[in-house]
Amino acid sequence: MEKFEEKYREYQGFFEGELKEYCAKMKYFPKVLTESMRYSLLSGGKRVRPVLLFAALELFGKEYRDEVNLAIALEMVHTYSLIHDDLPAMDNDDFRRGNPSSHKVFGEANAILAGDALLNEAFVLLLQEAGRGEEVRRAAYHLARAAGAEGMVAGQSADLLYEGKDVSGDELDFIYLHKTSKLIAAPVVMAAILAGADETLAEKFGLELGRLFQITDDLLDVKGDSARVGKTLGKDEQEDKATCVKVYGVERCELLADECAAKCLKLLDKFNGEPNFLRGMVDLVRSRDN
To answer: Which class would CATH give 2-287?
Structure first.
């Protein structure tokens, strides 16, 4: 586990340094736009998606430092989704990563615009990188689909649609697949595309890891510590959200999380190379407290 944590810090530290350099160069007018974009991008977090991209690239035999712009684009897409998710019209959360949410600092209108700007900035980066070749273009295309109306946005829409309603297991799976899993799987699939590795296997693993991530997220909302998690807890029940806990109860959710983790590890056994870091990621997601 120590080696995993050391490697995680390596990936995370490299990414943070590159992201800070990128943000330092952002100088948009009005100044509040730049400030609001930087505020959310630099507010910390585990950087799960960039780390997954770097780890998968190394597993597939590629130099991860060569794809930092794709990693930044990934984090921009994720960060825009968090800004919008926290808005009063969505999940109405005053805190994110232990800090006041963007709309609490800059106001709702500026928060919406910061999210819009980050999403578009991500695709500026992706289009710049796409000129390097067909594999990069396909990787960018995959991220666009995972984030849009066939992916995360569809999941967010369904999440709102089913709020306050009884949902089936299949309806919950739709939310999980689109809202969370596709953007967790995207960096692993992108790495496979860039390296010419097995994209189908990469996607199966990524989607299952995303499902595990969302189940543990639902569990944290019930039994987590707000100081550790960095956001308001208990809101899922308060707003009657469609969650694993609501559909199956806490004990069944714990079992489902164990099953997901086991599936992830079984899929990793089929990977070429030594996916030890990704095994560590599975353990981290299953046991996380933030």
So the answer is: mainly alpha
